[in-house]
UniProtKB/TrEMBL annotation:
InterPro entries, per database record: VWF_A, vWFA_dom_sf
Protein name: VWFA domain-containing protein
Domain VWFA: 30-216
First and last residue of the signal peptide: 1-23
Organism (species): Flaviaesturariibacter amylovorans
Keywords associated with the record: Signal
Domain of life: Bacteria
Amino acid sequence: MRSFSRIAGACLLALLLSHPAQAQKKAVPKLQVALLLDVSFTMEGLIEQAKTQLWSTARMLARSECEAGRPTVEIALYEYGRPSNGAAAGYVRQLSPFTSNLDALSDQLFRLRTDGGEEYCAEAIHAAVTELQWDPSPASYKAIFIAGNENFRQGRYPYATACAEAVAKGIVVNTIYCGYRAQAYNEFWDLGAECGGGSFTSINADEAEELPETPFDRQLITLNEKVNAGARRSGAFAMNAPTTIRGYSPGIQAERITTRSAMGTLAPPDTVEVRDINNPDALREYVVTERSPEYDPHDLEVQVNTHRRRQSGTPGSAAAAPKVRYRYSDKERAQLQRQIAALGVRRDAWLQAERKKRATTGTATLGSEMARLLKQQAGARGFRFR
């Protein structure tokens, strides 16, 4: 019997070694998109389109699938054409590295203002290619979308070199000209996409897209507030998940909520706000230091550092900081998330029908062209969009 067991074990080991792909789970590829925006004086419309259309684009990506499962979605953001970014940097600045935290990304977008400057597209592409953490897997979809106007060949860095650097890493370069297509050819925007293995298109950056309030927006906001209130108070402190969406229109808030739901980021946060009950004005932001499994996998242990105020940003002494635990009701949270997901689908259907009613010219915008090219290019790599 022992001999039989040894032989069976050896056979099983040999089988696993001969089929390593079956012995380990297949890695799920990523969808990585870097958005490079021209922030010169004439680009107010482009920035406004990015603010209102980012969430629907991200939601489309979040609902994608591939053979290995549900891909991770990461978006990065750059600005170029701002004088204060400095000539040495090609007037380019990274606003956000690759992240799935679209709240922080959107906050960066809403702070953007236009400025006068030189628009060096090649410098912006080079910075995105060399600074970002691109996934090395050939199964992942990696793309740069650069939007702006003026001459694509401006600057000292050769555009052909920047595009070749992208192609070497398996990154597709797509160029989006803000203006008339005929003028885009005169400004050489087609060349960037040609040598970068991507697509060239043009948009009307001044086409303002209003995001109408839907019958579901306020319900979604109420449900989201219940999710954020899912932590119980402990001791002298109360905790709330960050609610950075306040201050925006109901439509924008609902866009953010439904996108976070699609991306699965309505979970217990890694950053929380802690309010001292005895000192209501002392609102501070802290990082979750431990998820206390000895009590419950869904408990959070928060390092409450009373010297680290959000207003000043001054770090305090971690050694002297007390710890407070909070618990999320997993069953209640899951029920709320299901309700948000269902309302999100109904809201998308309502918006799609409303846009068809309002559509007159079918003008191309940043969001519509990015969605079209993403579906086309990622779809050719085996990604499916629901």
